[in-house]
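User: Let's play a game. I give you a shape written as tokens, and you guess the letters that built it. Ready? Here's round one.
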């Protein structure tokens, strides 16, 4: 009987620690010139600058969808701060740093042909994926 329990303990010792690491992704919203702390990763993400917003206005028809390019500054407990460039449609639209992938999912407000957007009014939605 003791050998039976010993056998089961050996099986659990080798089988249970084997886990499958899955990618986990979630989104973070950050306003222009503001910094937010991502609760899941502990990373600090700051929306530093809007580099380009050539997206097609929502009330017009365009041949090309256009592109939004933003600069974000990412830092963490064991990561030096680094500025990353993210694009909505052109490359690089996914940037890897410190074991994470960052992707610009949305930038609001969306342009309209008859409205000028205040640059301080932008908000970026960034997908963060642990690799």
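Assistant: Ready! My guess for every position:
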């Amino acid at each position: 009987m003791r050998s039976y329990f010993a056998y089961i303990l050996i099986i659990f010792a080798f089988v249970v620690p084997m886990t499958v690491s899955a990618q986990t992704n979630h989104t973070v919203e950050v306003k222009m010139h503001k910094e937010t702390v991502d609760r899941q990763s502990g990373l600090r993400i700051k929306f530093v600058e809007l580099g380009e917003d050539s997206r097609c206005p929502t009330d017009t028809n365009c041949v090309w969808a256009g592109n939004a390019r933003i600069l974000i500054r990412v830092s963490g407990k064991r990561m030096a701060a680094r500025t990353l460039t993210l694009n909505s449609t052109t490359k690089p639209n996914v940037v890897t740093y410190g074991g994470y992938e960052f992707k610009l999912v949305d930038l609001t407000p969306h342009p309209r042909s008859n409205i000028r957007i205040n640059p301080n009014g932008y908000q970026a939605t960034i997908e963060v994926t642990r690799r």
